[in-house]
Description:
Elements: H1 3-6, H2 16-24, H3 41-57, E1 64-68, H4 74-82, E2 87-92, H5 95-104, E3 109-112, E4 125-131, H6 139-152, E5 153-164, H7 172-180, E6 185-191, H8 194-214, H9 222-230, H10 232-235, H11 238-256, H12 259-270, E7 277-283
Parallel strand pairs: 1-2, 1-4, 2-3, 4-5
Antiparallel strand pairs: 5-7, 6-7
Helix pairs in contact: 3-4, 3-12, 8-11
Amino acid sequence: MSAASRSSHPPEWGNHQWFASRFQSSAPEDPSAYFGHRANGYQRFRHNYLVGFLKAKIKSPLHSVLDLGCGTGCLTEQIRRHLRIEDARGADFVKEMVQQAGYRYPRIKFATAALPQLAFPETRFDLIVSSEVLYYLSPDDRTECLRLIEQALSPGGYLLFTARLGAGYFSPAGAERLVRQSFDDLTIAWMHHRLYHALTRPLNRVIALNSALRSDGAMEDRKRGQFLRQHKRLLDNPIVRTGASMASWTGSPLIRSVVLPDLCNRLSAVAKATPSNIIILARKSEDQR
């Protein structure tokens, strides 16, 4: 990532400690938590959408999959189960997160590894997933990662690449250009979540704040932690705490639901709004070894 694009993020953005701290402060059933994917309606909708996309585009059976940057393994499990893949594996660079993924999904083999290097270097895969991860790497590491992915795919194998679009992430042309460095056969689709995030961002902040108040100040985000310390006297007020608790209680079902992100995605697509995410399914040539 260029210096200009990284300037929109804090200096520690995307490094090991940044992810580890978010995992350690995430309650698995908190829909506002960074790794609360099983409870968060947006993440559940996104995973369902990607699984549906794969099932619609890939007609031949897949026997093996590797999910790079698998996090807590939620998407890996969805792909394994719905595409009926026998050999499913995932890799991430936070050891504790990988351990939790292995505990939750024992039918998947997980390993700790940091991109651009791939886990399971001696194995060829029918499908490799890189979902919302490559923008954390430098430009050189992105290119190296794509090269290694192409080598790790079986002839005719697929790469599922997804990325957020916008400042500090990818442009549509930049994402396509990156994948075309190693693949020629591309299918591109879009997701539209800007409306959803605009509608739910205030509610997510209230839920996260309430969660922090109940856990004596544990916050995933440095800025939120600073806010909590600066306004401690106000936030210790019983009326404020009760209000945050009530807002969280009434808003959590909305954040947990898959209906709102689905509706926002459909409406934005019909309105031809600027997409928020790109999906690229790339296929390795049958002739490549």
